[in-house]
Amino acid sequence: MNVTIKDVAKRANVAPSTVSRVIADSPRISEKTKRKVREAMKELGYHPNFIARSLASQTSQVIGIVMPSSADQALQHPFFPEVIRGISKAAHEKKYALQMSTGEKEDEIYEEVIEMLQGRRVDGVILLYSRVNDKLMKYLQQNNFPFVVIGKPHQRAEQITHVDNDNYGIGKEATQYLIGLGHERIAFVGGNETYLVTADRLLGYKEALQEAGLVYRKDYIIYEEFLQKANQEGMRKLLSLGEPPTALVVVDDLMALDVLKLLDEMNLRVPDDISLVSFNNTLLAEMSRPPLTSVDIHIFQLGYEAAKNLIEKIAKPNEPVKRIIIPHKLVKRFSCDYVRK
Amino acid sequence: MNVTIKDVAKRANVAPSTVSRVIADSPRISEKTKRKVREAMKELGYHPNFIARSLASQTSQVIGIVMPSSADQALQHPFFPEVIRGISKAAHEKKYALQMSTGEKEDEIYEEVIEMLQGRRVDGVILLYSRVNDKLMKYLQQNNFPFVVIGKPHQRAEQITHVDNDNYGIGKEATQYLIGLGHERIAFVGGNETYLVTADRLLGYKEALQEAGLVYRKDYIIYEEFLQKANQEGMRKLLSLGEPPTALVVVDDLMALDVLKLLDEMNLRVPDDISLVSFNNTLLAEMSRPPLTSVDIHIFQLGYEAAKNLIEKIAKPNEPVKRIIIPHKLVKRFSCDYVRK
DNA sequence: AAGAAGGAAAGAATCGTTTAGGTTCTTTCC
DNA sequence: GGAAAGAACCTAAACGATTCTTTCCTTCTT
């Protein structure tokens, strides 16, 4: 079997409890003993058993990452690897390990996360999404498990620590930018309606139109389901309206690429015939042709802050709830131009 | 405190061991008792403690994912989320959880993984890379920890279970495709030289040239460091040779996008002035303009098979070593054309 | 020189399971 | 009718730490 704390204790002629204290570098142990014990550990090639430690100390030093329905699908979207990068960075700094949800359907994930937490596998979780009426979020709150959400919680946002962008402001600025270029017929291409990002950005979009005295037209709003390429109905209809839009606000880069492709097929040139601003500013925005004007939401930082705050919350469960807003920045590239009348 | 197996036992008027057996659905317990115990579990809202279970049973039902130096950097590359998707799928099917390395430097990762395994946090690991003379791989093998590598191990490949593509064949086919289009001056743009993928694909490239009776020129081979945009020296030099290549074999999509960008800056049109075939066929290949001809290596499946085989290996440590080759497929798009003389 | 004070380490309980090895009670069979 | 067999549970010892409590030495004080 493996080398345990007892073996080390025997070798160093001390009690197991002493070895444990040496590992924790307790001031109650003399330097001399510490040296002796450390030497024994080296000689035996001792490695602490995390599992046993977790059981005794009731903490696992692991944080859970919960992706929206289907880890499987989510990872196809560049947003997720990027948030995870941020989370990973913070976790690493604080010596926490990372565990990922693997569930595919919403209910599966719900069960999975509960097992993770109740089973003490993780000390807390980060939800990488925020959706209307989320069952899991309610459960976490009721059972007082440490968690933070990336995005704005649907209900009781003031009671839930979350890291978000000012999506309202983001939607507004992007739209204002297009208005500034003379566009008056601006459409909004959103993703899944039940996610709060979409809703907030739409709100900002509306506000920008209103302030500029432009009409808000329902037929200028469409929702394309995330990653479903077959679903181009809406876009085609939009572009063949009597008065088609001269500019598009597209809810994220990945979708913007889809849109770009479709426009190409329809022989519409960007930005000559139609302008396009998107969000997230992932690598895709830079790589696409033409490079996209996109609002950078600092995805990495979203993840970083989320993890940092979760870890703080785990350490001090009774600290006040926090709301962290990550700044954003419009990055101008080549997908927007002045309107051609 | 939480509901434990003892509480359930008391409630159901049985011994803790009986409850444990009910959880495991042991045939040694009568249906009647099982029903009684299950009811008690429901009533009390019992959830098993994984940590305690792991300690007692000496298995964690978790598999570790090890990314190459810097989880941080790796996740910027679309290959990784995609393998992880595959791993996640298989893990989910077998009820394994997933833990990720967060280390940044090679030594850190080395330590981290050892702690993971020795600390019994994971039952085995998947290495998402294969590099020349990898310290970690040696350690794993010597200590007989269950692991599988994605890619071809540098040494003793026949003793290590691994999942790979036929990178030699892939390099060869891609090159042959270009030769078939009449190209005679074909350059190879590789990534990090210490990764074995690069080496193998290069070998295939050479072989294809040779079979076609074309000369292999050293100045047609360059290595651009992964994700380092500043590093364009090599490419620029290559393109300003007396006899510049008419086609490029680029080692992956992400790099191909960089190359594409550079070509654009230099006013070279793809595929009119220069053809380009790349590898991996990630979303990027499809999304880029022009869409890239790329060899699909079925990344998802690489991950899926790796996880599946690791789990088998954990269950039966003495099964023979396996080598799994995932098939590939050249996907023709619009980045290649007949050579113009 | 006796007793107090305090530092260093040992002892032992605990965390929540699993599992080998008993024990008890019923059934079966000659 | 009594031994043997078998079903159905129970007891108790791990698993490898942490941590509260106790004990054992020193050293200092008066």
TrEMBL record, chains A, B:
Domain spans labelled HTH lacI-type: 3-57
GO MF annotation: an example: transcription cis-regulatory region binding
SMART domains on file: HTH_LACI
Superkingdom of the organism of origin: Bacteria
Pfam families the UniProt entry points to: LacI, Peripla_BP_3
InterPro entries reported for this sequence: HTH_LacI, LacI/GalR-like_sensor, Lambda_DNA-bd_dom_sf, Peripla_BP_I
Record key words, sorted: DNA-binding, Transcription, Transcription regulation
Protein name: DNA-binding LacI/PurR family transcriptional regulator
Lineage, top ranks: Bacteria, Bacillati, Bacillota, Bacilli, Bacillales
